[in-house]
Amino acid sequence: EHLEGWLVCPIKVPTGQSVGLNCRNIEDRKYSRYRSELFPWAPTLAGIDDVLAKASSGGSVWLVEGIYDMLPLRWSIPEGDAVASTLTARLSGEQAEWLARFCKKRVYVVYDMDSTGKKAAGFAVRALQKLGVNAIRWDFIGGKDPGEVWDKGGVTAVRRQFSSH
Predict the structure, then answer these.
(1) What is the C-alpha separation between 44 and 17, in angstroms, rounded?
(2) What is d(CA 155, CA 159) in angstroms, rounded to the nearest whole number?
């Protein structure tokens, strides 16, 4: 009953172990996050299982800020690609190094189109490129983030903004 009305997404480390939860209330969109200190050194991403499987098989990775941004992109990215959330508008050094190790094709950074998101996306792209990753920032219109694009136009709008590359 404490989770009723909340979208709950596990936060995992590359070994697949859950180390926390990222929660968002569906009605008022408030966030709540819990992270165990079981593996404080390990990179975490929402969607990390998908990234490991698909990036290792040659797919691209699409990085977003939040879980409400992650879910709509699954409607539009190519089948062999993966989408994951960094959970904030920040790519950590551990996340960047892990992505550099496994992502052999390309990383699209699809952070919010506000000033914070654009700045963080530029930083993420530069950090990944320094590690040899083919990374680009994906700019879009129709909303400040993929979740808002979804809210305004559903699957059609999301596919229009994120399908061609």
Answers:
(1) 10
(2) 6
